[in-house]
Write a structure and sequence with these properties.
Blueprint lengths: L1 E12 L2 E13 L4 E5 L6 H8 L7 E6 L2 E2 L5 H11 E4 L11 H10 L5 H14 L15 H13 L5 E5 L7 H16 L3 E5 L3 H4 L4 E6 L2 E2 L1
Parallel strand pairs: 3-8, 3-9, 6-7, 7-8
Antiparallel strand pairs: 1-2, 1-4, 4-5, 9-10
């Protein structure tokens, strides 16, 4: 599903360049649940941004679903992201002025889907995630765990084959963290490939493989 060859990422620094990623060569099969770990500054979130095509300033070869990402222009990368990738952030990234239902509708609104069909998909997702009673609430009216649940639902609503999660439980109480991780496990068992960045040894246990980074290198 994913093949990386010699991925490198640099940023300008006094006297030259600083490497954030060094010679990353990695394969991830469809249906895996992979955890990326390492100390702060190791390059974990940078690698996740490359995988999610949120960062295009890197060198090397990246293949996703037989698509040569490194040869695609930005417009086609954006289209590939929308087709295959759901992203879950630590800070939720919900739109504060939209209700839960409206937040869920946002990814669908970018697609050629009739309004009535979008409403049906949102209603089904609200039911699946147990959020029907909260559909008209705004993010500020939800707990952190509830906001992250909405964020996961929003990431999944267009049925991506790949979920990328950057410290998805970093701001949550342990009980809410378990709920989110168990949800990821359920999605993974249904065939969704999941790659999470975490500092939590407990969260890492939910996956089937751990990738360690240090100073931008695979270790």
């Amino acid at each position: 599903m994913i093949s990386l060859r010699n991925i490198e990422k640099t940023v300008p620094a006094p006297g030259g360049q600083t490497f954030l990623l060094r010679r990353i060569t990695l394969d991830i099969a469809a249906g895996e649940f992979v955890t990326i770990m390492g100390p702060s500054g190791a390059g974990k979130s940078t690698l996740l941004a490359v995988l999610g095509m949120l960062d295009g300033a890197w060198t090397g070869e990246y293949v996703l679903h037989d698509q040569l990402v490194h040869k695609l222009d930005n417009r086609r990368r954006v289209a590939l992201h929308k087709q295959y990738v759901g992203f879950v952030f630590q800070q939720y990234h919900l739109l504060d002025d939209l209700t839960v239902a409206e937040n869920l509708d946002v990814p669908l609104s970018y697609r050629d889907i009739r309004k009535s069909e979008r409403e049906a998909i949102v209603a089904d997702t609200l039911d699946k995630f147990g959020m029907v009673a909260k559909k008209d609430l705004y993010p500020s009216q939800l707990s952190g765990g509830q906001q992250q649940l909405v964020a996961v639902a929003r990431a999944m609503i267009h049925k991506p084959s790949l979920i990328l999660a950057d410290e998805p439980t970093g701001n949550l109480h342990s009980s809410h963290a378990r709920e989110i991780m168990e949800l990821f496990t359920t999605l993974n068992k249904a065939g969704v490939t999941i790659i999470q960045v975490t500092h939590s040894e407990e969260n890492a246990k939910y996956g089937n493989r751990i990738i360690n980074l240090k100073d931008g290198w695979l270790v």
